[in-house]
Every structure is written in structure tokens, then in C-alpha cells.
Design goal:
alpha/beta, Dihydrodipicolinate Reductase, domain 2, five-stranded mixed beta sheet, Rossmann fold, 250 residues, 24% strand
Amino acid sequence: MIKIAVCGALGKMGKEVVKTVEECPETELAAKIDIAGDDTYKSIEEAHKAVKFDLLIDFTQPKSIFENAKYCLTNGIKIVIGTTGLSDDQIAELRELSEKNNTGCLIAPNFSTGAVLMMMFAKQASKYFDNAEIIELHHNQKKDAPSGTSIKTALMMSEEKETFTKNNCPETETIKGARGGISYSDIHIHSVRMPGYIASQEVIFGSAGQIMTIRHDTMDRNCYMQGVMLAVKHVYDKNDFVYGLEKIMQ
């Protein structure tokens, strides 16, 4: 039985994770952590002192995730991270802490198996197209932009090609930001924030005479739970550092 603490337990994703952990026969909910609520611990440190748990699942805020992860890895608590907003330098530091302290850590910008397959398909398609851009669409309460999913997608695509703006003409933005943010391998990422969305992403590929679009839409947060539990079981068994759910879906 894997004893799990959930950080951000009262958020929309946190509530889904709590329900999934409670319903899974292989896991036990050891602690709910959230700054709000009467039946929750207010910090990871408080929960760690009060109860024993093997692993923490974090769905909190970009401003707190880095310190949360450092506390866990320094104190021998395995962690599955679904909160986005970590920089490349912060991810590298967490990798170093994980390996130094022999404590498992899995960071996934997206736990939807369909979204991860979209990212894997995009990487495969990158071998055959010289031009590509990403549009990511989320609800208007998402604080970080672009999304972690779009950044991770661009990173995976960049492993196949140095630039995705082949033969583009010199550009002048008459309105700043009109062409989106420029990510790995010159991939432009456009962020949309709108009530009604949960999470959607399009990767658009183009070449002479053809356009190909790979798109994934999330309609219910329950779609993330299969990936969360895959990550939990992997980290508990393998005790390694992983960035991206696609690494354990191959």
C-alpha cells in the first residue's frame, strides 16, 4: 500500500487526485495539504511531522512548487509534480537533488495520456516538416503562460530539428506579441486564456502544398488521473527522476 499526501488537495485537480487515491486499492490517502479548509494540513512540513507518507502529489501554484519539491527531495519524500511553471534551471536543480538524495521525482507538464500521445506524435511529425507553430488554449484562471505542455512539446520537437521557421520572411510586429512567444528551435507558441476551456492544444505543421494539425482537447479533469497513477506507481517502484510522462509510456 502506497501512502500518499496530496498538496493542493482542495483545488480542482487536487479534489480529483484525492478521490482517485481513495478509490485505488493500491494507495492510501495519508494527508490532505492545503492552506484552506479545516481538515487539511497547512504545509508539507506540518503534514510530514504529523503523519507518515511515502509519496506526495503536488498540484498547487507555480510560485510554491519549487520550494515544495525541494523540501520533499531533501527530506526523502518521493514526489509527483503536476504543477507547471518550473524553469529549465529549476528542473535541473530538482534532478540533481533527486539523484543526490536517491529520492524519486516525476515532473509532468500534462498527465492526460491523450495529450502526451499528441506530444509524442508531434515529435515524430517534426522529422518531416520544416515549419511548425503551437497554439495552446486554457481557462482564464491559469496563471502561467505559455503552458507547461506547450513548452514540453516544443522541447520534444526541437530534438528533431534546429529551426521550424524555414524560409520565413523577415517579420515586423505592428502589435507587440502578435507572433507569440519564441521557444525552442524558433517554435512560436500562442497562448489563449478564455472561460469555457479546460485545456486544449494544437500543433500546426506546414510545408509546400499541405498543412497538418495535431490537436488534443480536455473536457474533464478526470482524464488526468490515469497518468497520475501511472506516475505514482513508477516513482514508487523505480525511485528515479523523470521529466515527462512520455518517458514511462514508451
